[in-house]
């Protein structure tokens, strides 16, 4: 039945995927291995809540900030680093598992994985959160589980500030749609300059920048950056196509306006949050999934802001809570 | 879960590429496709004891992917399943498999014909035409009987053939017929009505 009849042939002519090419590049690739390793680090005693018989999944509430670097990378030459595991300190994501049936991977925001997962809980539930405990897995990933979830053998309990806030801010700054690498089309050289500036600003002295996969010209081909916490490298790679930016969209306009306002005024954390929420209501961003996270930075004089878009609009504010 | 890892590795290595192709055809971006694949195999990992033996795992995985996709489309906000770096690497591989252009009159006409069909018809035809599944595999994916698949598929094919003819795409029975047996005879909008 699946032989080469006319109907099948017609459909194959408009197949959007070159299967042979995909399988050739996928099979035995670092990408395939990296995904497998990512999956098999997850707890095995639970399910995602997806009933494979009926196809239903539990309704979930709003989900938190997930800083999604979802750009396509062509000619990625970072094979050597693709399967290396992050140390916990340099991880930028956390798995929150509140019940055996489901888990979510979120972008780490504060560096305290329990606090980040608690923030997630509050966006999804009205009732008090269960006791949450953070663990570092044998692969260096961070998993936060509630009492109802049994930690896996080999996991190590971790408490407090586990992930480097500077690395988290590096990630957020590079993903920022107003001024980061997703705000415009950057050439490799320009992107490298941006990355070096951020590493300098955040005093990430041990980190380096490498360029791989050829050069992006900043026109039809744009550069993005990947963080490798294991080697403490930011790898600048060219895309084969342009970045899809939010620059000329309502979200982009919102991002530009709040960034500009916070750059013009020196505000404490609470005032900055109020400004962002007011702008969000004004520009209709609340309904689009605006999530505002705050990180107390007592050493800062003014609040700084990063805005990323990945299915939601994630604003992270870092500043002094005392003013 | 002794023995779980080898079985998981076996099905993952055998079918992850096909599931990626399936997802890539039905999502807006390579990164979304990567998330669908990840979620599908997370289900497989966690339900390894439910995984059918041998080749029966293939339609089972497509069934899971289909439901993951439905949830993905329904979700107001995308839920990330992969670490950023892994997502970008997988999306990179996936993006290279998308042809740069299918912009020709024949392809446009075929797509237009496909667009006239209901979702159920399209799904059946594409599981055959794009994903290469057999009737009994489709029955597993859709969780219906083989007989139901046979009847629905027959009707979907007839509707698609009529839609192709309406759009001026008809089978060329002559010796000089083009690839695949279909050719665009004429595309005058008046004739396509």
What is the topological layout?
The complex is a heterodimer of chains A (323) and B (193).
Chain A: H1 6-13, H2 19-26, H3 30-40, H4 79-82, E1 93-99, E2 102-107, H5 113-124, E3 132-136, E4 142-146, E5 156-158, H6 165-175, H7 188-201, E6 208-211, E7 223-228, E8 233-238, H8 250-264, H9 269-282, E9 290-296, E10 304-309, E11 313-319
Parallel strand pairs in A: 1-4, 6-8, 9-11
Antiparallel strand pairs in A: 1-2, 3-4, 3-5, 7-8, 10-11
Chain B: H1 4-26, H2 30-46, H3 57-74, H4 84-95, H5 105-115, H6 119-129, H7 135-142, H8 146-166, E1 169-171, E2 182-184, H9 189-192
Antiparallel strand pairs in B: 1-2
Helix pairs in contact in B: 1-2, 1-3, 2-3, 2-4, 3-7, 5-8, 6-8, 7-8
Mean pLDDT of chain B: 79
Number of strands of chain B: 2
* Separation, N- and C-terminal Cα atoms of chain A: 71 Å
Structural class of chain B: mainly alpha
- What is the β-strand count of chain A? 11
- Numbering strands along the chain, what is their spatial order in the largest sheet of chain A? 2-1-4-3-5
Output the structural class of chain A. alpha/beta
Percent range of helical residues of chain A = 25-40%
Strand proportion of chain B, as a percent range, falls in: under 5%
Largest sheet of chain A: 5 strands, mixed
The major beta sheet of chain B can be summarized as: 2 strands, antiparallel
Please state the overall shape of chain A, judged from the principal axes of the Cα atoms: globular
What's the average pLDDT of chain A?
76
Write the H/E string of chain B, N to C: HHHHHHHHEEH
End-to-end gap of chain B: 60 Å
Strand order of the largest sheet of chain B: 1-2
Principal-axis shape of chain B equals globular
């Amino acid at each position: 039945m699946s032989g080469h009849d006319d109907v099948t042939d017609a459909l194959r002519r408009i197949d959007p995927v070159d299967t042979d090419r995909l399988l050739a590049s996928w099979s035995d690739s670092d990408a395939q291995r990296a995904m497998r390793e990512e999956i098999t680090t997850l707890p095995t005693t639970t399910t995602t809540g997806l009933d494979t018989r009926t196809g239903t999944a539990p309704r979930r509430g709003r989900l938190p900030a997930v800083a999604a670097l979802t750009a396509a990378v062509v000619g990625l030459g970072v094979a050597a680093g693709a399967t290396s595991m992050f140390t916990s300190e340099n991880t930028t994501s956390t798995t929150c598992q509140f019940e055996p049936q489901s888990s979510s991977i979120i972008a780490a925001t504060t560096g305290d994985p329990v606090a980040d997962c608690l923030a997630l809980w509050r966006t999804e539930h009205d009732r008090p959160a269960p006791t949450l405990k953070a663990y570092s897995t044998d692969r260096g990933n961070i998993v936060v589980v509630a009492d109802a979830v049994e930690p896996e053998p080999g996991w190590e309990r971790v408490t407090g500030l586990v992930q480097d806030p500077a690395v988290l801010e590096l990630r957020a700054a590079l993903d920022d749609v107003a001024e980061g690498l997703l705000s415009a089309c950057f050439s490799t050289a320009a992107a490298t300059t941006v990355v070096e500036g951020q590493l300098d600003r955040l005093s990430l002295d041990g980190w380096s920048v490498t360029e791989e996969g050829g050069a992006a010209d900043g026109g039809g081909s744009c550069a993005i950056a990947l963080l490798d916490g294991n080697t403490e490298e930011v790898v600048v790679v060219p895309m084969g196509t342009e970045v899809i930016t939010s620059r000329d969209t309502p979200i982009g306009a919102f991002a530009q306006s709040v960034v500009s306002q916070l750059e013009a005024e020196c505000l404490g954390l609470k005032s900055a949050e109020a400004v962002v929420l007011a702008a969000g209501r004004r520009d209709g961003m609340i309904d689009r999934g605006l999530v505002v996270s705050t990180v107390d930075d007592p050493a800062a004089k003014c609040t700084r802001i990063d805005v990323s878009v990945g299915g939601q609009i994630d604003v992270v504010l870092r500043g002094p809570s005392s003013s | 879960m002794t023995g779980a890892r080898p079985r998981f590795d076996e099905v993952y290595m055998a079918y992850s590429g096909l599931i990626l192709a399936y997802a890539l055809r039905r999502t807006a971006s390579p990164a979304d496709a990567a998330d669908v694949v990840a979620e599908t195999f997370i289900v497989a990992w966690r339900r390894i004891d439910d995984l059918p033996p041998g080749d029966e795992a293939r339609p089972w995985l497509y069934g899971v992917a289909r439901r993951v996709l439905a949830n993905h489309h329904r979700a107001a906000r995308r839920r990330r399943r992969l670490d950023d770096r892994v997502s970008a690497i997988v999306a990179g591989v996936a993006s290279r498999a998308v042809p740069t252009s299918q912009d020709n009159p024949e392809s446009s006409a075929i797509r237009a014909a496909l667009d006239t069909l209901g979702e159920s018809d399209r799904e059946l035809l594409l599981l055959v035409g794009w994903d290469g599944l057999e009737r009994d595999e489709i029955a597993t994916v859709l969780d219906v009987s083989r007989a139901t698949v046979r009847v629905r598929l027959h009707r979907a094919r007839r509707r698609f053939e009529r839609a192709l003819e309406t759009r001026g795409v008809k089978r060329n029975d002559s010796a000089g017929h083009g690839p695949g047996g279909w050719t665009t005879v004429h595309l005058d909008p008046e004739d396509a009505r």
